Amino acid sequence: MKAMFASLRAALFFYISTFTMAQSGECSGEAAPQQNGWVEQTVSLQQLLAPLKEQLSAGANISYDPSTLPRWSDYEAPKPGAIINVAVEEDVAIAVSSLPLLLPYAPLGKAWHQSIAAVSIHPYVPTSNHTK
Amino acid sequence: MIEIQVRYCTAHALPFLANSGTHGWNTKWNLPAHSAAINLQLLNKVTISPDRTRATIQGGALIHDVVNAAYNASTRVVTGNCNLVGHLGATLGGGYGHNMGLMGFAVDQLTSLDVVLGDGTWKRDVTRQSDPDLWFAMLGAGPNFGIVTAVTARADPTPQSDLTAWFGQLVFAPEKLEAVIEVVQALQLTPKMVLFIYFLTTGPPAATPLLLLTPLYHGSPADATTAFAPLLDLGPLSTEAAVLPWPRWNDFSDNPLSVKGGFKNIFAVGHDIADPATYRATWDDFVAFSSEPTAAGTGFVTEIFPHVGVAGGEEDVSGASFANRRTRFNSFIGPWYTDPALHAKAQIVGEAVRKRFRETGGLEKQLT
């Protein structure tokens, strides 16, 4: 598995190396040594979503308490770490723009950031099967 | 502004899930803790056009929001049957409900929609003509392609005095289950008829199993009792019936079925044949599971809607991806419990019930 991740990371770096290498500097937290142009940082959801909160409308808010959004069934229910309570329709577009994709091999609680293109390679595709 | 935010924010990658009613019973979310929910519940505005032929419904509106707005404006729209479920979640998956015999599936009522796509693009006034591929995808498989922030749907101006229905609650002795199912199989529903079959319990502590049928009829009590005479002639243990205004039609399904929390591992199945032996075996499974501690809320439901006019009639529905239009019976068993030790048993019961219905349901291709 490690080898696969290393391979993916190498492929990813090869891909993004053709793009701007500027650091975004948006994530704060402890920075690990630079690896092949990557900077690994441990970031919390609160840190990650702080800039988004400033862009949402006045009536919107972000909660980190899952009990504020109970589900009909707790059986294998999704447990998102953050709840973005949008207040106007444009908030949805802003939120989606902020959260469109996932690096599926990123360790929990960590985000890799280097360039805008870096996360556009592996879209997150949720598995949906209403009939199980 | 949105375009700028797309460029800026794609550096922060998180998986996300859109919520409205939070009733989806999918169990394959694959959503890690480092993720976010986009909660639409504050986007619950419903606006009826001055001529009452259009309803503009925001993405977070619940079914009772739509029902109340339309009823107060004296117009009819197609909604689902559980008040606290998100209207668009149900609609984008097809959307059957009490009014569909009169108007068709909810998904077929849509005339335009606003949707945020995966790259953050907010497309406004999407129609079949403007974006035929996106329209096809959204109408039937919408949750996989974007977050709908609002739709416009057809409405049928109707005086409140006509937005009423006869609603009955018929409790039968469990010994009559086979006879009831034989009648249900033979009963051809007209556009004004809706019929639900429930296996429920009286709740703790006794949790006595109940065989309950709830017929609904868009018309007078006299016409209703004629339409459902074959059932009434079987001699229910008790019969309660009343003419109810539209906002009250969902009362029964609201409590307790809409209550949040607990484990509900749902197994749904479509079928064209109601087989008495299949129902009997399912009844036995239901009785056994619902007698478990904490499982008295367990239920089994068959929902039966008329197909006259449902498949579009004269209307062309080929522009929508929703394909599950001709299933006569939509059934599900819902093991409902709070003790995690019952997970495995619930799974076994659910799979057994679904397998049984698939084997006897008369469908060559499974429709669920």
Report the end-to-end length of chain A measured between terminal Cα atoms: 28 Å
Mean pLDDT of chain B: 90
Quaternary status of these chains?
A: heterodimer
Distance between the termini of chain B: 42 Å
Write the element-wise H/E pattern of chain A from the N-terminal end onward.
HEEHEEHE
**Main interface by residue count:** A-B, 64 and 68 residues
The computed structural class of chain B is: alpha+beta
How do the helices and strands follow one another from N- to C-terminus of chain B? HEEEEHEHHEEHEEEHEEHHEHEEHEEEH
What fraction strand of chain A?
Answer: 5-15%
Question: Uncertain segments of chain A of ≥5 residues (pLDDT<50)?
Answer: 1-33, 100-132
Spatial arrangement of strands, main beta sheet of chain A: 1-2-5
Calculate the mean pLDDT score of chain A and round it.
Answer: 58
Q: What percent strand of chain B?
A: 25-35%
Annotation field: number of helices of chain A: 3
Helix segment tally of chain B: 11
Q: Percent range for helical residues of chain A?
A: 25-40%
Task: Provide the fold topology.
The complex is a heterodimer of chains A (132) and B (368).
Chain A: H1 2-16, E1 30-31, E2 39-42, H2 45-55, E3 61-63, E4 82-85, H3 89-98, E5 110-113
Antiparallel strand pairs in A: 1-2, 2-5, 3-4
Chain B: H1 2-9, E1 16-19, E2 36-39, E3 46-48, E4 54-58, H2 63-72, E5 75-76, H3 87-92, H4 100-103, E6 110-116, E7 122-126, H5 132-141, E8 147-154, E9 156-157, E10 164-172, H6 177-186, E11 193-201, E12 209-217, H7 221-227, H8 229-232, E13 238-245, H9 251-254, E14 263-264, E15 267-271, H10 276-290, E16 299-304, E17 329-334, E18 336-337, H11 343-360
Parallel strand pairs in B: 1-2
Antiparallel strand pairs in B: 3-4, 4-8, 5-9, 6-7, 6-8, 10-12, 10-13, 11-12, 11-16, 14-18, 15-17, 16-17
Please give a structural write-up.
The complex is a heterodimer of chains A (132) and B (368). With 132 residues, chain A is α+β, with helices and mostly antiparallel strands. Chain A contains 3 helices and 5 strands. In chain A, 27% of the residues lie in helices and 13% in strands. In chain A, the strands form 2 sheets. Chain A has a 3-stranded antiparallel sheet with strand order 1-2-5, with no helix packed on it. A two-stranded antiparallel sheet of chain A has the order 3-4. Chain A is globular, with a radius of gyration of 17 Å. Chain B is of the alpha+beta class. In chain B, 26% of the residues lie in helices and 26% in strands. In chain B, β11 and β12 (209-217) form a beta hairpin. In chain B, α6 crosses α10 (276-290) and α10 packs antiparallel against α11. At the A-B interface, α2, β4 and α3 of A face α1, β1, β2, β8 and β14 of B. β4 of chain A pairs parallel with β2 of chain B, so a sheet runs across the interface.
